[in-house]
Write a structure and sequence with these properties.
The chain has ten helices and twelve strands. By secondary structure, it is of the alpha/beta class. The chain has three domains: about 60 residues, no CATH class; about 180 residues, Rossmann fold, CATH 3.40.50; about 70 residues, Ubiquitin-like (UB roll), CATH 3.10.20.30. The protein is globular and about 60 Å long. The two termini are about 45 Å apart. About 5% of the residues have low confidence.
Length: about 325
């Protein structure tokens, strides 16, 4: 990172890292370009910012022209988190996606790759995760538009056909192609601030390896595969055919992402148990208030909490951390 970057630039860069939608990313990039010190040490970074602004501007124009055909790759995140399924042709991504989400896509025992991202919901207890089946990554091609989706998603499910003779080469290819696009798959869940790279356009994406078609392979092959590639992703052995490992994915995502379910109630009213707010480990009562409504957060006075408090109905302030299954009554 070039020296002497202004606080304004650093704030814009942090906002860019957190932005999920292309329009938000574009506004952050424009602010980064405006705020960056103009000297020789930042020329390379300025050129990178300008290139990304052009790319997002062209993508936005293309999506606008083709909106009536529904061809945009933009997907609105839904559920407790958004996870993308990545893999080579024939790895069984679509079959896993159909089994996990209950989608009714046509799948078969042959490579039949999806050409557009396909979303679906994986239920877990009283929440759900959005799983997005991406077009496959092959030796010949990877759709460049998908990198924007991967930059804003919460994690990756890396699917490999463990029974395929070339599975090691396929997985190495995916890691290489994504690295060129500055998307680094990491075993750390969630990807923490300590992993933030000096390059603001590199993204660390927490990854779960799904060693698929385990009914046709040796279960120990997954460890051998990781040893050969020098990676250490958490692994779940799966099979869409016999259902092995599928029930482990939801609990893993819940733990690894630090999901915290918070239920709310209005004063004098029963608890709203229909749909909890899905927060993250470390979030506070004020974060819950922001999710409920910005006006409530702005005029927040105190909250009563059932669950993680010292006693039921305890009065707490805005900075009180929430825990899973807490019930929060907001007063503003």
């Amino acid at each position: 990172m070039p020296a002497n970057l202004s606080p304004e630039y650093k704030r814009a860069e942090q906002a860019y890292r957190l932005a999920r939608q292309p329009r938000e990313q574009l506004e952050c990039l424009k602010e980064m370009l405006r705020a960056i010190p103009k000297h020789k040490g930042t020329e390379h970074l300025q050129a990178d910012i300008k290139s990304r602004i052009r790319g997002l501007t062209q993508e936005s124009a293309s999506h606008g022209k083709s909106a009536h055909r529904g061809s945009s790759h933009a997907l609105h995140p839904d559920g407790a988190a958004q996870l993308c399924l990545i893999g080579p042709p024939g790895a069984g991504k679509s079959s896993l996606h159909a089994s996990l989400t209950g989608s009714h896509r046509e799948v078969g025992p042959y490579p039949h790759p999806a050409r557009l991202p396909i979303p679906g919901m994986l239920p877990f207890e009283d929440i759900a995760f959005q799983l997005v089946d991406l077009p496959p990554v092959s030796f010949e091609f990877m759709q460049p538009e998908l990198t924007n989706l991967l930059r804003s998603t919460d994690g990756a499910l890396l699917v490999v056909d463990l029974s395929a003779p070339d599975c090691t080469e396929q997985l190495a290819l995916i890691l290489q192609r994504l690295a060129v696009a500055k998307i680094i798959l990491t075993e750390r869940w969630p990807a923490t601030a300590e992993l933030a790279p000096a390059d603001p356009f590199s993204v660390y994406l927490p990854t779960l390896l799904l060693a698929n078609k385990i009914d046709l392979a040796n279960p120990e092959d997954a460890a051998v595969l990781e040893d050969l590639l020098g990676v250490r992703f958490p692994v779940i052995a799966t099979s869409a055919t016999c259902g092995r490992g599928l029930a482990e994915i939801g609990p893993f995502l819940f733990r690894a992402l630090g999901i915290v379910r918070v239920y709310t109630k209005a004063p004098g009213k029963p608890i709203d148990q229909n749909r909890p707010f899905t927060m993250r480990r470390g979030d506070t009562v004020l974060d819950v208030a922001l999710r409920v409504h910005p006006d409530i957060a702005r005029t927040f006075k105190f909250a009563r909490i059932w669950g993680s408090g010292k006693f039921n109905g305890q009065h707490v302030g805005a900075d009180h951390p929430v825990a899973d299954t807490d019930v929060v009554e907001l007063h503003a």
